[in-house]
Inverse folding.
């Protein structure tokens, strides 16, 4: 069952997920910002247009109109002075005024080309000025210098009236241009005020939007996630019964529901695991008690069997010495069988007793120099080494914290096996190595003997398991099993190298210090096998 099936499906806005809230919020924000951006763009464009009109048209037109008025006044002043005095110097201002008039008129025509009212005012000024020039200015200017022209006095009244018309036309033109410039300035101020308001609104909207985004994130995401994190930390701290309350958008509530479902499942699994652990602890306690009982049984059985078996062995040997050769051959054979069986049984029980003592009686952990232990072992095995002509070499061996007696038994069994299982026509060559590997010491004992077939690599470490009959190689079949128990008791492992074909190579590891819990014991199986063999 999924989280969607476990949680009721909300409707309306409560069903919106975080992604949907973000999409709607971003879309609305972008739409409002786009509208405000369009308004701001229009206001900026309008401001630029009015400013350009004011700077490029209205103010230059008014200035040019004033220059035009000044040029016409200069003409009137020069004509009036020439008409009164007849002095040629008064003609120069008149002619300069005509040039400035033409220039100003052309400039005004360019500036006011798309304004009919302005062009009408310019035409009125031009017409009034033309009439005044034709009737007054040009005839007087054409009179010879030296004396006042008679025409000046004759047309004085007419000239005054004509120039008054010029003045009136200039005044109307300048009033319109001033009014246009004032209106343009007012439009510019109003547009600038609108621009400021629009950009203030944009700034205010961005501030409000930022506040809403942070508040929305706090309430819709951060808050629910913080509560979810607090609930998760409470559960991680061990309070598995702490419920997780779904809050926030639909997806976060769904996530909370999934986590709470996982919590409930973990509670069930932990309850099952705790029950299983209790059962395992009980079984481990039973197994430990059984192992202890079996160890005690093996020790008692092997120890208590020594005395009656010693009597059986002594009397069968005595029977063999006293009556050997006096009975028939079959009786002598039966006596030999009895003596041999008693001796073998005594050897098996002695070896089983030694096996049961590993880790129980021999457990004196101390610093052990394996070089010295190996030297003592070679001294103990010196007779067999000399008889077979064995050559034994070894690398420098480390010093470990271990039981010295068990280390001696380990080397004695490994070296003894390497010497015993040699090839009939070849002297044994044995080499021992030691190297540090992954926090453990790795040892190898390599020989050139008959070797161990790969299919028997595990069987040789089982107690009383022999690969050869007692007639070929002597022994009880307990040596490698004892080595396995010693190595595991010291936190290591032992095995046969399956890749080595020129003899046998036993590989085992030992911890630099004994483990807190000794390795697994094979005593229950060993005891059963031993009792069956016995």
């Amino acid at each position: 069952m999924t989280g969607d099936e476990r949680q009721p499906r909300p409707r309306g806005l409560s069903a919106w997920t975080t992604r949907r809230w973000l999409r709607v919020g971003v879309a609305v924000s972008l739409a409002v910002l786009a509208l405000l951006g369009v308004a701001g763009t229009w206001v900026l464009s309008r401001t630029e247009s009015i400013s350009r009109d004011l700077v490029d048209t209205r103010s230059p037109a008014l200035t040019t109109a004033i220059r035009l008025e000044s040029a016409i006044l200069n003409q009137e002043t020069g004509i009036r002075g020439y008409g009164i005095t007849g002095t040629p110097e008064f003609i120069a201002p008149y002619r300069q005024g005509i040039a400035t008039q033409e220039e100003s008129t052309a400039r005004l025509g360019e500036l006011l080309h798309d304004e009919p009212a302005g062009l009408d005012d310019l035409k009125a000024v031009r017409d009034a000025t033309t009439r005044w020039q034709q009737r007054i200015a040009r005839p007087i200017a054409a009179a010879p210098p030296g004396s006042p022209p008679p025409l000046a006095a004759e047309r004085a009244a007419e000239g005054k009236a004509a120039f008054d018309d010029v003045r009136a036309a200039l005044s109307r033109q300048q009033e319109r241009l001033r009014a246009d410039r004032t209106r343009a300035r007012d439009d510019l101020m109003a547009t600038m005020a609108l621009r400021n308001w629009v950009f203030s609104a944009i700034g205010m909207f961005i501030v409000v939007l930022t506040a809403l985004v942070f508040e929305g994130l706090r309430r819709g995401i951060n808050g629910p996630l913080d509560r979810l994190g607090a609930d998760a930390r409470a559960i991680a701290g061990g309070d598995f019964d702490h419920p997780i309350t779904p809050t926030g958008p639909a997806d976060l509530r769904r996530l909370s529901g999934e986590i709470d479902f996982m919590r409930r499942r973990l509670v069930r699994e932990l309850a099952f695991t705790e029950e299983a652990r209790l059962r395992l602890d009980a079984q481990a306690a039973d197994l430990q008690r059984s192992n202890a009982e079996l160890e005690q049984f093996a020790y008692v059985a092997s120890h208590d069997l020594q005395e009656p078996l010693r009597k059986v062995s002594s009397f069968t040997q005595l029977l063999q010495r006293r009556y050997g050769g006096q009975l028939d051959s079959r009786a002598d054979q039966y006596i030999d069988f009895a003596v041999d069986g008693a001796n073998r049984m005594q050897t098996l029980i002695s070896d089983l007793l030694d096996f049961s003592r590993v880790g129980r009686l021999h457990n004196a952990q101390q610093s052990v120099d394996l070089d010295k232990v190996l030297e003592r072992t070679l001294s103990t095995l010196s007779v067999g080494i000399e008889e077979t002509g064995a050559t034994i070499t070894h690398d420098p061996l480390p010093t470990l914290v271990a039981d010295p007696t068990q280390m001696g038994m380990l080397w004695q069994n490994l070296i003894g096996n390497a010497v015993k299982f040699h090839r009939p026509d070849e002297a044994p060559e044995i080499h021992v190595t030691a190297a540090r590997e992954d926090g453990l010491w790795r040892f190898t004992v390599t020989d050139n003997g008959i070797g161990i077939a790969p299919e028997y690599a595990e069987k040789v470490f089982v107690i009383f398991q022999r690969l050869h009959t007692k007639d070929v190689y002597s022994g009880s079949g307990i040596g490698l099993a004892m080595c396995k128990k010693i190595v595991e008791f010291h936190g290591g492992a032992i095995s046969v190298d399956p890749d080595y074909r020129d003899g046998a190579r036993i590989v085992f590891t030992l911890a630099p210090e004994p483990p807190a819990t000794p390795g697994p014991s094979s005593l229950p199986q060993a005891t059963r096998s031993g009792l069956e063999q016995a």
Notes: Residues 1-10, 519-534 have pLDDT under 50 and may be disordered. The chain is about 70% helix and 5% strand.
